[in-house]
Amino acid sequence: MSHIYRIILAIFIVSQTINAGFFDKEGLILIPSVAFRDRSSPNDWNLHAQGWYYEENPVQAFLMEKSLELVVRKDLDRNRVKMFTAEGEDGEQICINALSRSMCTKTDKEGRIKNNFKLTNQEIETLRQVSSGGGKVLVDVGVQKKNLKGINEILLCDDNGLTFISDIDDTVKITEVTSSTQTLINTFSGDFKAVEGMAEIYRHWEKQYNATFAYLTASPDQLYPFLREFFDREQFPIGSAHMRHFTWLDKNFITFFMSSSYMSKKTETLEMFLKNTLNRRFVLLGDVFQKDPDIYAGIYGQYPDRIEKIFIRKYDNDVVGQERLETVFKDVPRHKWATFEKGSDLPRNIF
Ligand SMILES: *[C@@H]1O[C@H](CO)[C@@H](O)[C@H](O)[C@H]1NC(C)=O
């Protein structure tokens, strides 16, 4: 794959020299997030807002699209490609508003919004909207100097209850991460395809257990709007999304999608859920194609009483995958983990 990387890098450097200052098309992506009770004062909640404020670079998007098309020999969706050539707007003032409270802060150097703010329990009760589990609150996020605004959905994750934490690529959506060409095709062309039966069983569990959902993925947050379209079309339960962010400075395109550096990020997010809730229990879903089993086995080792079950997607006839799982999960009781290939292989009752 290294030739692809070189082509893309060359295109990138050339197009960097074409100043994109002529264009001024900016956007704001807000990604559903979570709120936990404040551990030091349980009458307050900590809400995490997350998003990205960017400016498009149409020249670079065009060149990038054409070069990727040469490599994968398919038509790609420019709207998706252009999110990867857009640049984060760093150090810009953004304000988060809920009720009469306003909290203003700046985007980080990648243009990301990653902010915590507090609301009292009473304020949460005023704002709470019905959604599965503990409900959600909506907060306004706006860019000060522009008329650019959006609504950030924040799901309430209280101390009790059940949360399903699910990977996306090759767990609920067909990405075929074991092939880099297929990953590019499945990411940048055509409609995203769902793993059969997953949306149905997730909806069933959501209702049956009054559960909340969190989607934990190595995919970049630049893809969130397209994933959301996919989730809504397939009717997956709404959940918070915990994604990485792609930048040109420190990573290249292909290795970003292929790298295993997401292990620590995923583990950190799982720890955030476990540390910030007292008795909430979790069901973890992932696949054998990447590092989910290793990550989940690690978390199980730390919090055995709070992980109800681990489900790993693999092909039914994948003997090597099965052996790998037996090894990775050697310290996890056998009844605590199971494999599946499609939604209908999963149990309707977890306990
Ligand atoms: C779901 O859980 C939330 C939070 O514990 C609770 O307020 C709500 O009433 C529950 N809904 C159902 C249908 O049990």
UniProtKB/TrEMBL annotation:
One of its GO terms (molecular function) is phosphatidate phosphatase activity. Residues 163-314 form the Phosphatidate phosphatase APP1 catalytic domain. InterPro entries: APP1_cat, Mg2+_PAP. Keywords: Signal. Residues 1-20 form the signal peptide. It comes from the Eukaryota. This is Phosphatidate phosphatase APP1 catalytic domain-containing protein.
